[in-house]
Specification:
By secondary structure, the protein is α/β, with parallel strands linked by helices. It has one domain: TIM Barrel, CATH 3.20.20.70. 38% of the residues lie in helices and 20% in strands. It is built from 7 helices and 10 strands. Helix 4 links the parallel strand 4 and strand 5. Helix 5 packs parallel to helix 6.
Amino acid sequence: MQLYAITDRALLAGGPAGMEAALATQVERWVTGGVDWVQLREKDLPRPALCSLLQQLARVTRQAGSRTRLLVNGLAPEDAHACGADGVHLPGGASVAAVASALRAAGLATVSCHTLGELHAARDGGATAVLWAPVFGKTLHGKPVQDGTGLRTLGEACAAAGPMPVFALGGVSVERAASCMAAGAAGVAGIRLFHGEGWQRLVGTHPG
C-alpha cells in the first residue's frame, strides 16, 4: 500500500509563527515513517512563501535513503522544479495537454479526479498517478458537504486507469483502507488521516 500525505499546517500546533517549523517536523515524521508521497498544499501562501517552504521541505525529503517524493499544489510546474519539488499536483479538470506539459516541466504529476472523464484525461496525458475523490464523502469543518462515490465506483476508476496508480481520497480512515485496496487502489491519500498517529498502522501493509 502506497501512502500519500497532504499537508495542512493549520492542523499543527505552534501558532502562526511556528507553523512552517511544525510542518517540517511533521514531514520528517512521514519521511522516516514510510510515507511514499507528500503533497505540499498550502493555498493561502503567496508564491514566494510557498517556494521558500517547498525548498525547506525538499531538504527534509531528500534525507539519505528517503524514498518520499515531494509534490506541490498551486505552483507552476517550472517554479515547482526550480524550488526543489519532485513534481506537481494538478486540480480536477486538467486537460490531456496540461498534464503532459506539467510532466515535461516538473518530472512527476498527480491529478485530482472526480469523474471517469477526468481520469481518462489524466491517463491519456501520462499522469504519474491520480487521486480519486471523494470515496467516502467530503466534510468541511466537520460537516458533510459532498456524498462519496463509493467503493464500486472506485473500483471502476481503478480498472479504467490501467497501469496508472489510483489513490483513494475522501473520508478514508485506517479502518477503511483495506476496502480501498480490495477495490483496486494502489494506496490511500488524505489530510487528517496523516495528521494523527493512526497512519503508522498502514505502513508495510498490502504491498503494492
